[in-house]
Amino acid sequence: MQQDTELKAMLSDVLTRTPNCDPDFELTTTTVDFLYFLDKNNQKSQKKFQIAGKKQEKNIPPLTPPTSKLHYWWLKANPQMWSLSNWSIGEIQSYTLYNDNGNKRRVFQNFLDAEAGDIAICYEATPTKQVVALAKIYKKNDGKHIYFQKTESLTYPIDYSILKNCEELNNMEFFANPNGSLFKLTQNEYDFIMDIIRDTNPIKRTNENIGRYTDEDFLNDVFLDEQNSKP
What we know:
Blueprint: H1 5-17, H2 28-57, E1 72-77, E2 92-96, H3 108-113, E3 119-124, E4 130-139, E5 145-159, H4 160-164, H5 173-176, E6 182-185, H6 187-200, H7 215-222, H8 226-229
Parallel strand pairs: 1-3
Antiparallel strand pairs: 1-6, 2-5, 3-4, 4-5
């Protein structure tokens, strides 16, 4: 604290404007107040955890009902018919289970197995040949359509060639037979691809309310007004 010139200047200003205060040149009182502040907030945090634990003990039902184990999918689209890149985040897109001739889509069982909440890695076919987005199954098939919702656009798409050359993906259903639209991914295949995606597309911090805890915040927290300082 002695080395924090900004804090010392602000402390001096507060003491100057507050009558009958110890100048605290050695910052002894300030240090004690600071430790008290840390201890007080630590106790608050412990109480929150204790309260949370008690709620769990009461078996309060979860906000959402338990779901079955997630499945992972590789969603392929022709960019000339459906551009996954231009698909807006949050937008819901339906995909038919049958083509215009009334024939079942290739690997038809995958469309039947997909459940709401499942995760899909979105791949644009030729000429793009890149993983461009992430999505989830918004709604299980209704016999005619299945519904996808885009959850993320990739700022830096992943080229087909990068994934095709990975030994870890040699047995991937899409690489074994790329004819179709929806392909299964194992947990390991999904995790491996996501590691590659996150290397170049890290998750962005979205909470704008989190800021730096300043010296002024500290002084406002540890100094009590006249009413609160009386025993």
